[in-house]
Design brief:
Number of strands: 12
Number of domains: 2
Strand order of the largest sheet: 3-2-1-4-5-6
Order of helices and strands: EHHEEHEHEEHHEHEHEHEHEHEHH
Largest sheet: 6 strands, parallel
CATH architecture of the largest domain: 3-Layer(aba) Sandwich
Radius of gyration: 21 Å
Distance between the termini: 45 Å
Shape: globular
Length: 354
């Protein structure tokens, strides 16, 4: 019989996950496992203001707490009020799912009886339950790392599917916006997201232009370039390199981004947060990977595929690359086209009503 490792008397749980889109989404299976093991507990997720909206509609989460170090909590007095509020809430369990010294520190400040985290960062001595394993590059996906952590206090294996809910009214608004651009329910929509969190992850703009032109010829595709607020030039460079017209748009929120991705037949993108959004929504996705550990961060969806070059220097320190990030910058267009022309080509239009 499996030993019961669940903790007694858990009424309030705080999960610290105030980092990126992919980090939060790849934590949702572990959050679901916590919900299964502590069904009566109130689960709060501490997140960034930019990523917190992804938890809208997630039934495993009761409350979202936002920590904004650059704005609302920039002043010391506001940070102290934030920490005091954590302590007054009287959490029984804090899970430092983000591996950071600050996460461990906050877990300690909360006064929670049980504090769960990893051993790599400072203040680890304040944790009551510590995951001590070391992971080698190229071996364990982030979802499984999160399962390993909560497995210290949970029973069962959990469901690996990412949790992201896009509401019906959000999809309806996205469809209306696409219609205003001349996109019909019968059109094949190629979504391109050329951005990434750092330069080394970005596939060249002219390569995206070639992919777009090819799909216009082969599938009469409508091209939707989705960009971040600071990626105007990136999108413009793709449009200039293209032989056909396209739509470039910066979604006003992460919720709108998700709804527009949901309306695409195919998304081609870099290793990025939007890649994980597409995977969570099971939208057919082809993702370009460069120096990132693809085993840890590959999109978790049966409809997702990655394209990468095997390099003798991998695993590497990407920001100190001595050969100009050849893994990303010189990845051939043909490799991506081969994947695009593969199993993703038969998907129906998501703009049609079921």
């Amino acid at each position: 019989m499996e030993p019961d490792c669940r903790l007694p008397g858990i009424r309030k749980i705080l999960i610290i996950r105030n980092d990126g889109i992919g980090d939060l989404l790849n934590s949702t299976p572990a959050i679901s496992l916590l919900r299964q093991n502590y069904p009566r507990a109130e689960i709060t997720v501490l997140a960034q203001s930019t990523t917190a909206p992804m938890l809208v509609g997630n039934t495993d989460v009761d409350r979202v707490l936002i920590y904004d170090r650059r704005r609302a909590h920039q002043r010391l007095v506001n940070r102290l009020k934030f920490y005091l509020g954590l302590r007054q809430t009287k959490y029984n369990l804090v899970v430092a799912m983000r591996t950071a010294s600050w996460s461990n520190f906050v877990a300690f400040l909360s006064g929670a009886k049980y504090r769960l985290g990893r051993h790599q960062k400072r203040f680890k001595s304040t944790l009551t339950h510590v995951w001590r394993a070391q992971y080698q590059k190229g071996h364990v996906h982030e979802i499984d790392r999160n399962f390993d952590l909560v497995g210290l206090i949970c029973k069962g294996t959990g469901d690996r599917r990412l949790v992201l809910k896009v509401l019906d009214e959000e999809i309806a608004r996205a469809k209306r916006k696409l219609a205003s651009w001349g996109v019909t329910p019968n059109d094949y929509v190629l979504g391109i997201h050329p951005g990434a969190s750092s330069f080394d992850k970005r596939w060249p703009e002219e390569n995206y232009a070639e992919i777009a032109d090819t799909l216009v010829r082969e599938r009469a595709a409508k091209i939707l370039i989705l960009r971040g607020p600071e990626e105007t030039e990136l999108a413009r460079n793709i449009q200039k390199a293209m032989q056909v017209e396209s739509i470039a748009y910066a979604p006003q929120s992460i919720r709108e981004l998700g709804a527009l991705i949901r309306c695409c037949n195919l998304v081609v993108c870099n290793d990025s947060g939007p890649m994980h959004i597409a995977a969570a929504l099971d939208v057919p996705t082809v993702a370009v990977f460069g120096p990132t550990d693809h085993v840890v961060w590959k999109p978790q969806s049966k409809n997702a595929a990655i394209v990468r070059r095997d390099m003798p220097c991998w695993p590497c320190s990407a920001h100190k690359c001595k050969i100009g990030w050849e893994c990303t910058k010189k990845l051939p267009v043909d490799m991506v086209l081969e994947m695009v022309r593969g199993p993703t080509k038969s998907f129906h239009s998501p703009l049609r009503n079921p």
